[in-house]
Amino acid sequence: MQINIDTSWKKHLNEEFNKPYFAELLAFVEAEYEAHTCFPEKELIFNAFNLCAFEDVKVVIIGQDPYHDCNQANGLCFSVNDGIAFPPSLKNIFKELKDDVNKSLPESGNLESWARQGVLLLNATLTVRAHQAGSHQKKGWETFTDAVIKLISDRKENVVFLLWGGYAKKKAKLIDPKKHHILSTGHPSPLSANRGYWFGNKHFSETNFLLEQDGFQPLVW
Q1: Mean pLDDT score, 4-28
Q2: Which of 118, 124, 161, 213 can pair with 58 through a Cys bridge, CB separation 3.0 to 4.6 Å?
Q3: How many Å apart are CA 41 and CA 197, to the nearest integer?
């Protein structure tokens, strides 16, 4: 399988691509896509990187797995294709966004506009078999995406990391808190949000405040 990833990332990640685990991972993914329906579309596996160059990264949002139902996943965590109904977690993200920065509910759940402004929407696992959540976990993707998080931490400064939920919070150990901002809260899924762990976190306004403090343009969420 070809590594269809922006050159700004390739130069930093070539060493990772040459490791044995990554060759095994690509072979696994290739076989899965040949034998089963998998998501996202093969050309969108590295979409998060292709819409947000390494130099442009200002914010990182960490998800776990791509959506596993038809036509949903587009290679950006929490994001869905145009015209697709909002999954529950995305609905709660938009509700918090409205409460926090008075942003009206968007027509589309496609978060491509965030990515183009410097938000890396990174799933820890970049592929999944249709209708089988977690089916591509522990095959090597997490090793790769952990390396990406550490790369950003090591080689950039003043990035805002948004860690939503227990899984994402575990990634804090890869991030240097002296160089970066880490905002943590509950997961936007209904299970977490309805228990009071998501709503009211104000991460969107807080992120823009931190970006402006560091001399960056705030995001149009």
Answers
A1: 97
A2: 118
A3: 33
| Annotated catalytic residue 99 | no
d(CA 56, CA 72): 26
pTM value is 0.97
Cβ atoms of residues 129 and 38 within 8 Å: yes
End-to-end CA distance of the chain: 34
Q: Which positions ≥6 away from 172 have C-beta within 8 Å?
A: 161, 163, 182, 184
Q: What is the pLDDT of residues 111-130, one digit of tens each?
A: 999 999 999 999 999 999 99
Q: What is the pLDDT of residues 190-200, one digit of tens each?
A: 999 889 999 99
pLDDT at 188 over 90: yes
And the tokens for 91?
A: 């609905």
The tokens for 190 are 């209904």
Q: Output the 3-class SS for the chain.
A: CCCCCCHHHHHHHHHHHCCHHHHHHHHHHHHHHHHCCEECCHHHCCHHHHCCCHHHCCEEEEECCCCCCCCCCCCCCCCCCCCCCCCHHHHHHHHHHHHHHCCCCCCCCCCHHHHHCCEEEEECCCCEECCECCCCCCCCHHHHHHHHHHHHHHHCCCCEEEEECHHHHHHHHHCCCCCCEEEEECCCCHHHHCCCCCCCCCHHHHHHHHHHHCCCCCCCC
